[in-house]
Structure formats: structure tokens, C-alpha cells
Amino acid sequence: MKNNIILYQEISLEIKKKILNGSYPVGSYIPSEPELEKMFHVSKVTIRQAVSLLAAEGYVEKRRGKGTLVVSNQLFNKLSKAKSFSKIVEESGFSIEKKILSIETIANPEIDGIKQAFDSEVTYIMRMYFLNDIPYIIYRHYIRKVNEISSGNLNLDHISLYQLLKENHQIVAFFDDAFEGIALNKEEQTLLKTDTATGLRRTRKSYDQKGNLIEYSTGTYNTQVFPYRIEYEV
């Protein structure tokens, strides 16, 4: 039998999935604790741990005498006290523009960790961020194949990559980020319109609730234009 810690985390992920896909919309109440006990065939303690985890992540709030209210369906609530990087950039006086450079379907991406993780075709999206019309970030996204899309009908300025995944029934449960200083290659220097020799590489891997990789993205930053910063509220 699975230990209690793993069990309550799995139940929390199942409830979170229903919040993210709209089964439990913002402003509604999730089933009561007794109902959840019956649904998952677990104890009251396990359900309370699962709900407490959702509350800590910012998805729900317990209302005395009423139940547990869904207050957010935003994916990364755990980062809610960290100001978004886009917000930091805008507050520094820059305007941000996003442009899709290419979209294609790739059968066998030759990248370490991707070919083994994706057992089918992937959708590859390459896009550029500009700060005051200056090339700043090259993004390369590899995601499980989504519905037929093209740069003409996809606007990732108004729909996030994670909303796109959600609409294709791929729910991100957790992710990890890695940062490293890199030497820019000729293609990257050309796209970023810079002679700068070095840059910052951010690699993100996103997983579903079963631990399957559903997104692999890299962002290559020209930090001479603007340094990568994270600001936290305390």
C-alpha cells in the first residue's frame, strides 16, 4: 500500500487537475471532506492533508461553515510571491513583443532527454522576445503533439504555452528550471543581433501528474540587453 505522504499528494494532484480543466471552476466549492473520503476511499486525515496542500499552493481557501472554495486556476500559484519576469521588465521601462519564428512537427528530436521521453511526434515552436524592438530571448519549445496549428492561427502573446497544453488535455503538475551560462553560437548571435560571446540558458522540463515529460523548453537570453532577475515579496 502506498504511504500516506504519497497518497495525499496524489489526491491533491487529482483535485488540482479538475480545477485546472474547469471541472471545479473558480468561485465554486470542491466536494466536502466526507464526499472526498468516499471518492478516494481514504481517511479524513489524508483528505485534510490534500486540501491543505492545495490551500498552500493558492488554489483553494477554506470557508468556515461553507466548505472549500476554489479561488484560482492559475498554474503556478506557488510562485505567486515572486514577481513575474515580464512585470519586472515592463516596470524597468521596456516594452515586450513576442514573435513566432517557426512551428513544425518533429518525429524524432535529436536532443538529449527528449527522444527517450517523447514516444511520438512532438510540436516544435520557436519564438523570439523583443525588448524595445531589440532581440532578447530565443525560445525553443518541444511539447507533445497538439492539434494542427500554424503561426497564422496561434498567438502565444494572448494564450500561454500552458493554456495551449491545457486545451490539448495536457496538465502540468510540476516542473523544474535549470540555469547556466553559455557561449552563444553563430546562429544565436545572428538571431539576437549581437557580437556578445556569452549568454544565459534556461531549461525547463514540465511533467504531468504521472511524471511524464510533456514540455521541454530552452530560453537563450542576451543578458547584455537586460539581466535576468527574480524579485520576491516577503
UniProtKB/TrEMBL annotation:
<dbReference type="InterPro" id="IPR000524">
    <property type="entry name" value="Tscrpt_reg_HTH_GntR"/>
</dbReference>
<dbReference type="InterPro" id="IPR036388">
    <property type="entry name" value="WH-like_DNA-bd_sf"/>
</dbReference>
<keyword id="KW-0804">Transcription</keyword>
<dbReference type="GO" id="GO:0045892">
    <property type="term" value="P:negative regulation of DNA-templated transcription"/>
</dbReference>
<dbReference type="InterPro" id="IPR050679">
    <property type="entry name" value="Bact_HTH_transcr_reg"/>
</dbReference>
<dbReference type="GO" id="GO:0003700">
    <property type="term" value="F:DNA-binding transcription factor activity"/>
</dbReference>
<protein>
    <submittedName>
        <fullName>GntR family transcriptional regulator</fullName>
    </submittedName>
</protein>
<keyword id="KW-0238">DNA-binding</keyword>
<dbReference type="InterPro" id="IPR011663">
    <property type="entry name" value="UTRA"/>
</dbReference>
<keyword id="KW-0805">Transcription regulation</keyword>
<dbReference type="Pfam" id="PF07702">
    <property type="entry name" value="UTRA"/>
</dbReference>
<dbReference type="Pfam" id="PF00392">
    <property type="entry name" value="GntR"/>
</dbReference>
<dbReference type="GO" id="GO:0003677">
    <property type="term" value="F:DNA binding"/>
</dbReference>
<feature type="domain" description="HTH gntR-type">
    <location>
        <begin position="5"/>
        <end position="73"/>
    </location>
</feature>
<dbReference type="InterPro" id="IPR028978">
    <property type="entry name" value="Chorismate_lyase_/UTRA_dom_sf"/>
</dbReference>
<dbReference type="InterPro" id="IPR036390">
    <property type="entry name" value="WH_DNA-bd_sf"/>
</dbReference>
